[in-house]
Amino acid sequence: MHKNVKNKEFKMDIHNIKEDDVPTTSAELEAYEAKFPKTIQSNINAKMLEERQKFIDKQPSDGEMEEKIVEHLKQIYDPELPVNIYDLGLIYRIECWTNEVSMLKMCKITMTLTSATCSFSQVIVDLVKSIVSRQSGLENIDVDIVFDPPWGQANMTDEAKLAMGLL
Q1: Is the pTM for the entire model greater than 0.70?
Q2: Does pLDDT of 7 surpass 80?
Q3: What residues contact residue 144 under an 8 Å CB cut-off, 6+ apart?
Q4: Which structural domains are found in the chain, ordered by start?
Q5: Fewer CB within 10 Å: C terminus or N terminus of the chain?
Q6: pLDDT attached to residue 103
Q7: Is residue 42 over pLDDT 90?
Q8: pLDDT for residue 1
């Protein structure tokens, strides 16, 4: 909020206060309440809630976000193989839910690696986590690497087996 200096003390210029200003001191709050009485503030709060609901309505459902995550995972290739990590069968589970504060999606991906000694494990995990920067409405991805059950060729899709010459 704007302040004018008069007689060596700060006073609020009530004409410079806007509806979307956020008071940060008691003097600013007092000036804000003087310009926008409680009834107006109630309307402002209702408008803010309406805008929040519009934002929430635009967010994908948990299932839709899981589908979007799969699309991204199919673009991440194992650095040592000509197959994406999804078709390779490295992804065991994708769970998405809504953060009740931010109203953005949080996801947990349970996955494995072709071997526990995979030299590119951190690269693959970082690529999976980087999906957040490319997918709107997504706040965080937590990656859980597991080795039970162990990965095997049976986890691969037919397309992956074909690409690797196993079919």
Answers
A1: no
A2: no
A3: 108, 109, 110, 111
A4: 3-58 (no CATH), 62-163 (3.30.300.130)
A5: C
A6: 83
A7: no
A8: 47
